[in-house]
Amino acid sequence: MSSRKTSAAPLLFHLYRAVTAALAPFAYRKVAGKLTDHGVSAARQRERMGYPTEPRPTPQTPDGHPAPLLWFHGASVGESLAALSLIDKLAPRLPGAEFLLTSGTATSAEMMAKRMPANCRHQFAPLDATAPVRRFLRHWQPDAALFVESELWPVTLDAAKRSGVRLALVNARLSARSIARWKSKPATAAFVMQHFDVLLSQNPQMGQSLIDLGAPADRVHPSGNLKAGSAPLPVDQTGLASVQAELGARPLWVASSTHRGEEEKVIAAHKALLAETPDLCLLLAPRHPERATEVIALIKKAGLSVARRSAGDALTPDTQVYLADTLGEVGTWYALSPIVFLGGSLAPIGGHNPFEVAQAGAAVITGPGYSNFAETYPPLIDAGGAVEVSDAPTLAGAVQHWLTDDTALNTARTAARGVVEAQAAALDGVVDLLITHLALPSPNTRN
Questions:
Q1: Which residues, at least 6 apart from 128, have a Cβ–Cβ distance to it below 8 Å?
Q2: Which domain holds residue 319?
Q3: pLDDT for 2 beyond 60
Q4: How far is CA 383 from CA 224, 347, 417, 422, in A?
Q5: Of 212, 145, 193, 224, nearest to 437 (Cα)?
Q6: What pLDDT digit, counting tens, does each position of 407-440 carry?
Q7: Is residue 89 assigned to a domain?
Q8: Between these two residues, 211 and 7, which has the higher pLDDT value?
Q9: pTM, rounded to two decimals
Q10: Is there a domain that residue 444 lies in?
């Protein structure tokens, strides 16, 4: 049982708990509808109401001692992958431990089904309302719960703490808007923050923000970004070979995870590059493939030819833009090209994960808007593994430099991989912090 005490619940928390209990059936209809659209079964949809679809395991060490069941929650794919990277590091230190991973999206569930280890199972997370959370906790009875990045569920946290579950916030990252919103409710913010036995922030600045919101300072530890320790993205070798064959000797660059307002700049940069390198191909992978029709219109408006992967279009010698409007293939694209522009950074989005690019052996180009990776990009840029651009002309210049200077490109690729490896190695200390603060029974701590 956790010995940490929290302050008395403020009135706003009681109101929130009452409202979420009343609205849970309506919220369920909405989330169930989204899961139905993705082909999720009715039984699995009910996991959102706390009804399990798998039995609870009984974890035991090889010598028969009880082992912990650890619950990780990551809202979507990125957070779930960060959770998997931490599970990979914790498992060897906790022999016999079992892991429960929850998330809210069908895409994350599909990804986890492919990448989870044998001692891990996935469930959709219960809605943050009293009845679903009670059902969930009654069945799973986790020893500890680790919430990844930014989701703070007051009802879930309070119910788990009352059940004796030790709590961690890991890879903590709150947006400026979220921090401002919590600061406007200081009593509730402090009440929520005090539930955690340990809070691991991505950088010192975020750590201070958590303290400002009411987290006890002795429980807050900057720990780097867990995504540095994620396993490399999968590569479809058959698909890779097929696209390589269609490209032949043509040079290529990749623009990945682009958002509305960025494709115009990427396309303009590519059009400028074609003036210098007429056979250059751009592989464009929007963050949201459902925007494909919109992006194709932008490409055609610029007077460029396009082939659409989801339609099975061939990548011919005349194809100037290959639109990769599919899911789950970015690992293949990063293996295809050593030059990758990561979107969400020329628009005010916060950037996307450069670790995946560097692990694939590519160098990174980013816009200035990488606030979600504020602890990652500066050392990556300082080391020469990434370069920051601001618009179409500077993007074209960065790509042109690496296209025409193999030495500079190879130096950048090596630097990018080195920064990621160094940050991944530093995550070993995160495991020690969690084992200590969550009182996990590792062989080194068992009496």
A1: 20, 153, 154, 155, 156
A2: 237-425
A3: no
A4: 17, 24, 10, 12
A5: 145
A6: 999 999 999 999 988 887 777 788 889 999 999 9
A7: yes
A8: 211
A9: 0.77
A10: no
